[in-house]
Write a structure and sequence with these properties.
alpha/beta, Rossmann fold, 2 domains, nine-stranded mixed sheet, two-stranded antiparallel sheet, 10 helices, about 15% strand, globular
């Protein structure tokens, strides 16, 4: 029998035992409707994330301590669907709130300017392209004798205060507002200080959670009970934190082999655009968190098509974390 013929008789599919990995997710919170609950799209995203995590051994979640609770609720929704039970409590792992991954790390003046830019672009689109919705807004304004539905725009002129419109109108405005977030995102990412502060805060959480995974791994090994399935930490934060991290510590390897260090703009066809509400990225720490790779592979969900490979530079993460510590000492 020839070598070729012997190969042809081998099974077409060979089952290979999967080695459990340690993974850190970074999730952008779902949007909240004017009525208070998370958007249906956000809930659907959380359900999909939770379904994908049903087979893991551990799922511990951490969420921004922003008072809106959007990040916390997003984490809870994901964890509730995954339904991973802690052997200590016999309940789902609880979500913990953490600092420095919300917008209080950014100059309030920039936040105000960004918010106005988004709202101005939203109203411009509505009044130029959606006359029925514009008419509803005008009708609400006509009944506002006190002028409470108006505020000052970035040019010092009067504009509609979207957040004070009737709730039913706000619901119709919400999709256009989300669509026009890009205008504000571009402004925010043009601020080196804002980008650096977001990257520092998120890096501090990532480095800290990496240490938690290392201690957990050592404890399991000491008991001769290594994990049989993936161990996952989910950090839930806000828009542009992931983008800021990639801008400071990301590496993009194109199919040609060309490398780009520092992803200045992910709003491209190659990278798939800004991280969307409810979307997660996944950092593959590997089989041993005590031996984290110098280039940490970044994986994306099925909804994002990336033409190339993305990594995080571990040394850059550690540098950013050191800056966090230095900043705290100054404070």
């Amino acid at each position: 029998m020839s070598e070729r013929e012997s190969h042809e008789e081998l099974p077409k599919k060979i089952e290979v035992e999967k080695i459990p990995h340690y993974i850190i997710m970074i999730t952008r919170h779902a949007e909240r409707l004017p009525s208070g609950e998370l958007s249906p799209e956000g809930i659907a995203h959380a359900q999909a994330r939770g379904e994908n995590l049903k087979g893991v051994e551990v799922l511990k979640s951490y969420a921004s301590d922003h008072p809106s609770g959007r990040a916390y609720e997003t984490a809870e929704n994901i964890g509730g669907i995954a339904d991973i039970i802690s052997p200590q409590t016999q309940e789902c792992y609880r979500t913990r709130r953490v600092k420095d991954v919300q917008y209080n790390v950014i100059d309030p003046a920039i936040l105000k300017e960004v918010k106005l830019l988004i709202e101005e672009a939203t109203l411009k689109e509505i009044y130029s392209e959606h006359p029925k919705l514009a008419q509803l807004i005008e009708s609400a304004l006509s009944e506002d004798a006190s002028g409470s539905l108006m505020k000052t725009n970035s040019q010092g002129e009067q504009m509609v205060d979207i957040e004070k419109l009737p709730k039913d109108i706000q619901r119709q405005v919400a999709p256009f507002r989300q669509k026009n977030q890009k205008v504000g995102f571009e402004k925010m990412l043009a601020s080196p200080e804002a980008v650096k502060n977001m990257a520092i805060g998120l890096s501090h959480q990532l480095v800290g959670k990496g240490k938690i995974l290392a201690r957990y791994s050592q404890a399991r090994e000491a008991k001769n009970k290594s994990p049989q399935k993936d161990v996952v930490i989910n950090i839930n934060t806000h828009g542009l934190f992931t983008e800021s991290l990639l801008k400071n510590a990301g590496i993009f390897v194109k199919p040609t082999g060309e490398e780009i260090h520092g992803l200045d703009n992910i709003d491209t066809d190659e990278l798939g655009g800004y991280i969307q509400p409810g979307e997660s990225i996944y950092l593959d720490i590997g089989a041993s968190p005590n031996n984290i790779p110098e280039r940490i592979p970044v994986m994306f969900g099925n909804e994002r098509k990336v033409r190339g490979e993305v990594y995080l530079d571990r040394s850059k993460l550690e540098q950013l974390d050191q800056e966090y510590g230095a900043n705290k000492k100054v404070e």
